Amino acid sequence: MSSDHPSIWEQRRFWDWHWEHWQERRTINDWKDKRHDTMLTMLSELRLVHSKLLDLGCGPGRYTEKLTRFGQVTGIDLSEQAINVARSRYPGITFVAGSLYELPLPREYFDVVVSQEVIDHVEDQVAFLDRAACVLKPGGYLVLSCANRFVMDRLGEGEFPPQPPAHITRCRSAREWKRLLGRRFQVLRIRSILPVVGQRGLLRFTNWPRLNAAFALLIGEERVTALKEWSGLGYTLIVLARKVPTTDGRRGR
After folding, report:
1. Is residue 220 part of a domain?
2. What is the pLDDT of residue 2?
């Protein structure tokens, strides 16, 4: 791991603090509900039956609980604070506190791995994806949500608050995710949602309120939003990928 990154202990302390102060940090909000609803729709289209799902970075379990409609769910998170809350609220779900890189998770056991707004905040994204591939059955699905680098690079001043040093942030574009995931996965779909932030470059025009209002009068607000999402201008990217065999014919590990 790079020495430029905070230690696991520092990250754990940050995320404990984050979940202790979730209300003032607006951890639960309409954007995250929209993200999760989109992911649930993707999962519904897979027609999963009695599946085993792993929620990587589950936090206090609010969204983990909604995954139980697809089967048996396990949630893991670095923050013991978040896991204690999750266990108290959802006793029917297995929750585990610890580092993804160190926990003894079963190999080729899960049908689906879900991870929401986590991979942007880990020190080794390649190792993260390798661990996800390791625990997935051959042909199993990975569903990620993450910030869109195209948008994050064009944020206006003050659009997002500054974060503490222990808060790792490394965003990627859709093209970068395709390349990185291609080592272990077949990317089936990448969708952008929430085209609501960004005030520099192209986004200065696409997010200009008067321009959006004019187009909304012509074609409707929902269609304006859909066109911006289709163009990849959403703040959040949602990726659906499938574990594939290795190139020498063996199953991916």
Report:
1. no
2. 45
Task: Report which of 118, 142, 116 is spatially closest to residue 63, judged by C-alpha positions.
Answer: 116
Q: What average pLDDT does this structure show over 237-246?
A: 90
CB contact burial 152-161 (16+ within 10 A = b; e otherwise): bebeeeeeee
Percent of the chain whose predicted confidence (pLDDT) is above 70: 93
Confidence of residue 234 (pLDDT cuts 50, 70, 90): very high
CA distance 200 to 45: 36
Taken as a whole, the chain contains a residue count of 253
CATH at 143:
3.40.50.150
Q: What is the distance between the alpha carbons of residues 41 and 34, in angstroms, rounded to a whole number?
A: 11
How many domains in the chain?
A: 1
How far from chain centre, in Å, is Cα 47?
A: 21
